[in-house]
Write a structure and sequence with these properties.
alpha+beta
Length: 124
């Protein structure tokens, strides 16, 4: 083999390696750009969901909640509660839903999964 042949043979693998590196860089940057987009999209979605849930707590919505309603009915009006406290006694089950929005709060007390009482500090 001549020096020219050895040089061309040695040059070919380097050219291939160079293409592979460039190809990896392109794919890598593509993945980074798109994963950043997906993360931003998820953050916006969660932010909008948080805004929507806080708008549901109004005086009018609290007035819709009546004694004897089930938990599902209350959640369909007010959304999911901020905190839940359940106490099982021998003959009855007492559950307290607390909805918090800034300084205001709504407390709904269930007896055997039906609304027994409600209290609100909303001032609308």
């Amino acid at each position: 083999m001549t020096n020219d042949e050895i040089t061309t043979m040695k040059g070919k693998p380097r050219a291939r390696r160079s293409r592979r590196v460039r190809s990896f860089r392109l794919r890598h940057s593509f993945v980074i750009r798109h994963s950043s987009f997906v993360i931003c999209l998820l953050a916006v979605t969660f932010a909008l969901a948080a805004c929507n849930s806080s708008k549901r707590l109004t005086k009018a919505n609290v007035d819709e909640v009546a004694e004897g309603m089930s938990k599902k009915q209350v959640e369909s009006i007010l959304g999911p509660p901020t905190t839940v406290d359940t106490k099982d006694f021998v003959l009855l089950k007492k559950t307290t839903y607390v909805y918090a929005q800034g300084k205001d709060s709504i407390t709904v007390i269930f007896k055997d999964d039906k609304v027994q009482s409600k209290a609100s500090t909303l001032s609308e």
